[in-house]
Design a protein that fits this description.
alpha+beta; 4 domains; five-stranded mixed sheet; 23 strands; globular
């Protein structure tokens, strides 16, 4: 139907302008297209994103994947090496253009469709990987249309998958222009002659610009007719003149340049009388709910396994806070300031990177092995300090800033928040997931609420004397306790060394251990000079510490593995494999983990990978899929985000025949998983 309308429109326009001009259009191409690869050295078994960087000439336009009432979409024909494949083109949000009463979905400014190219796992390092594509597309002005072709090619080389920083920034900008998939299903109803679409969408999520629904399924609505888009609580309702009922309607809901892809099935949609674009009245309530959830999650985070090592630092400060000769309120405020400011800084950086198109979540910094090395050196130093190897007073500037010598408490709070980021406990996951779609000020308030929750127990001890009186009196026993508390810090350093090896390989772990040894020697040297009462005891050790920190420049992520071995009885996660298993009617348990997530590892060793659960899954024919997010896989990041989570762990249970998965708690038990598999423990 669209093609017929296009032919009739072109004929009418030609008849209208033929007497005025017999000249052919200027020599093309009228849309210049450049094929660009995000990396020119893709790794075996990896995916590489290609961009068709397109620039229309002034006055010309190209078409979206559904061109509307007129026009034709672009078609790509690929010539690739054996075993390689290209996914469908992904288009940015288009513009609307009405010509002669017909609606066109077009691009009049530079745009870049993206495509994901899959490299075969058996590709050989160093081999040339040629990519050729023939692109057929239509370009038009308001008067004439011209079919054009572009034969594009690029020669990649199989390598380590490294992406230059400038190329990554450019692709992040193009990705930011793509619509995001909407995780929750939509529904539509034809009420008389009205097509009414209901899209679940949080009332607190900020949207700017005029709303419009771009249908991908042809024949559902009248393209050129006006639409009515209304925000009604936690949903968006679109009304337009209907054409016919269809089994489902796919499309793109856009607000300005922000778009969301969706799929709608037939259902019942209640009408709304709200005015189009009216602001939601639930914005403040939703933001407050997310803030309270973050506070509760932060409180619970104090007892989560990944935060326990930092409790050794808190314990000594709590004992000191019980000393009436000290300044417990100042200690509590300084500690709280360190926690909250660190959470705000990490949250602000996360929001900024996501605004640039990066698919990252909470604890994103731990996906960089250089950050892991820095933490390894820091935790090693703390452990040696607790063990009595040396003494370290807070810097003078920190003391002055924290008021009355509480710089140590401030730095302890900052460290506690930084190391707590790998965890996602009850309440916290939902709150941080909501923060990613809230307006920036509200989102930062949620991150601040998380910091407040982490610091709340210490804050109460500082301001409630009755609680402090329950603490033991300071004494010589504190020295013994301090030595004991160095043990979990040494264990944390060992865990960080293991994570570094997983991220940067054996070479990276060797560099990390060498840097830790160098730092330890420098700290021992300073401690020996302190014991002898020498002035400027730290002066000779500083070069060694700086040299240890310089090891960060030598750390690089290990080349991506073709396939990291999944635990026995499980498979690596992919959306294609998930769809295939669900099509077979099998129950599926999908979990998302990372090597630096201690909560994840506790759940895996204590529940998921136990013999009892493995046997229950075998009896229940449960398929297990594992998504490894250690190095921040963007595809996994986008999937996690669609389930309203800001990071790992994420546990999903897919029942046969169910439309949506059940999101399981962040703390699992063997009995819980056995019951889900239909086996009574």
């Amino acid at each position: 139907m669209a093609l017929l309308r296009f032919v009739l429109m072109s004929l009418a326009l030609w008849l209208a302008i033929a007497p005025a001009s017999a000249q052919a259009p200027g020599k093309g191409p009228h849309v210049r297209i450049e094929l660009i690869a995000e990396t020119e050295r893709p790794a075996p078994g990896s995916e590489v994103t290609l961009a068709f960087a397109s620039t229309p000439e002034p006055g010309w336009h190209a078409y979206w994947e559904n061109p509307g009432d007129a026009g034709l979409p672009a078609r790509a024909s690929w010539t690739l090496p054996d075993g390689a494949s290209a996914e469908p083109l992904r288009f940015p949000v288009p513009q609307r253009l009405i010509i002669g009463g017909l609606m066109n979905y077009v691009y009049e400014a530079p745009f870049a469709p993206l495509v994901t190219l899959k490299v075969p796992a058996d590709a050989t390092i160093g081999d040339v990987f040629p990519v050729r594509v023939k692109l057929d597309y239509l370009v038009c002005t308001n008067e004439i249309c011209v079919p054009e072709k572009a034969e594009l090619s690029t020669a990649l080389t199989i390598g380590d998958g490294a992406v230059p920083a400038d190329r990554r920034a450019r692709f992040d900008g193009w990705r930011a222009a793509l619509p995001k998939p909407l995780g929750t299903p939509a529904k539509y109803q034809i009420d008389g002659k009205t097509f009414r679409l209901e899209v679940p969408f949080p009332a607190a999520a900020a949207l700017t610009g005029e709303g419009y629904f771009f249908p991908l399924t042809d024949g559902a609505i009248d393209y050129a007719a006006p639409q009515r888009v209304v925000r009604d609580g936690d949903r968006i309702v679109v009304e337009a003149p209907a054409k016919r009922a269809l089994p489902k309607v796919d499309g793109l809901l856009a607000f300005g340049g922000q778009g969301f892809t969706l799929s709608a099935a037939p259902g019942t949609v209640a009408p709304t009388s709200a005015s189009a674009g009216a602001p939601s009245s639930g914005w403040i309530a939703a933001a407050l709910f997310a803030f309270l959830g973050a506070v509760a999650g932060g409180v619970i985070l104090n007892i989560m396994p990944c935060v326990f090592p930092i409790l050794s630092l808190k314990a000594l400060s709590l004992v000191k806070a019980g000393d009436q000769a000290g300044n417990p309120r100042g200690e509590a405020l300084a500690y709280t300031a360190g926690v909250v400011l660190t959470c705000l800084a990490l949250g602000g950086l996360l929001l900024g990177l996501r605004a640039g198109g990066a698919a990252i979540g909470w604890a994103f910094q731990l996906q960089d092995p250089r950050v892991i090395l820095f933490l390894l050196l820091l935790v090693t130093g703390i452990a040696l300090n607790l063990a009595g190897l040396f003494e370290l007073s807070a810097p003078g500037f920190a003391n002055r800033a924290a008021a009355r010598g509480n710089g140590g408490a401030f730095l302890t709070g900052a460290l506690a928040a930084f190391v707590a980021t790998p965890c996602a406990g009850p309440f916290m996951a939902t709150a941080l997931g909501a923060a990613l779609i809230l307006p920036s000020p509200a989102a930062l308030a949620v991150f601040g609420g998380l910091g407040l929750g982490i610091a709340l127990p210490f804050l109460l001890l500082g301001f409630v004397p009755a609680l402090r009186r329950r603490l033991p009196k300071p004494g010589a026993w504190m020295a013994t306790l301090r030595r004991i508390l160095s043990i979990p810090m040494f264990l944390t350093a060992l865990a960080l060394a293991w994570v570094l090896g997983r991220q940067a390989g054996v070479d990276g772990m060797t560099i990390g251990l060498g840097a830790a040894l160098l730092a330890a020697f420098g700290l021992w040297w300073a401690g020996r000079r302190q014991a002898r009462g020498l002035s400027r005891a730290w002066l000779p050790a500083l070069p060694l510490l700086l040299l240890a920190l310089a090891g960060m420049a030598m750390i690089h992520p290990a080349p991506p593995e073709a396939a990291r071995a999944a635990p026995a009885g499980s498979e690596a996660f992919s959306e294609a494999r998930l769809a295939a298993l669900r099509a077979e009617g099998r129950p599926v348990f999908a979990y998302f983990t990372a090597d630096w997530c201690l909560t994840c590892k506790v759940n895996e060793k204590g529940a998921i990978e136990t013999e009892a659960v493995r046997s229950a899954f075998e009896k229940g024919k449960v398929a297990v899929l594992v998504g490894d997010w250690t190095n921040g896989d963007p595809a996994l990041g986008r999937f996690i985000e669609r389930h309203n989570r800001a990071g790992v762990p994420l546990y999903l249970w897919y029942r046969p025949g169910s439309a949506e998965p059940e999101v399981l708690p962040q703390v699992l038990t063997q009995a819980m998983l056995q019951n889900l598999a239909g086996v009574n423990p």
